[in-house]
Design a protein that fits this description.
single chain, alpha/beta, Nucleotidyltransferase, domain 5, 5-stranded mixed beta sheet, 3 helices, 5 strands
Length: 125
């Protein structure tokens, strides 16, 4: 009884199934991602300065607190305090940052102040 030795032929590797899988993954991630903006903060270049004679509010943004005209308060208390001042037309607010402030903290402050009408916010360097 003689056994036949099988000869293994190496089949070429085709890339067509791999490309199909990559294409399907690409479609899945493109269709499952979110294309909407969660929050938007408009930024503008600084103008020529303050135009009216009203004294501006001064906000010092720090890592642990916010100081409005020298009075320390938490971040969520700034908006009601500024809203009392912003009843005038073209109220101005100057914001200065300490060195340890993150950009997320600045965005949080700007988004709090964004809802106040007639308020011009300028961020100082």
């Amino acid at each position: 009884m003689a056994l036949e030795a099988r000869t293994w032929r190496r089949r070429p590797v085709t890339l067509a199934p791999l490309i199909d899988v990559i294409f399907l993954l690409l479609l899945f991630f493109m269709l499952s991602s979110i294309f909407t903006r969660f929050a938007e903060v408009p930024l503008m270049n600084a103008g020529g300065g303050l135009t009216d004679g009203n004294a501006p509010l001064f906000v010092q943004l720090r890592a642990d607190d916010v100081r409005l005209n020298g009075v320390a308060m938490p971040l969520d208390a700034v908006s009601p305090a500024v809203e009392e001042y912003a009843t005038q037309e073209d109220a101005a607010l100057l914001v200065t940052l300490s060195s340890e402030v993150t950009s997320q903290r600045l965005i949080d402050l700007l988004s709090e102040l964004h809802s106040i009408p007639n308020l011009t916010v300028s961020v100082l360097e």
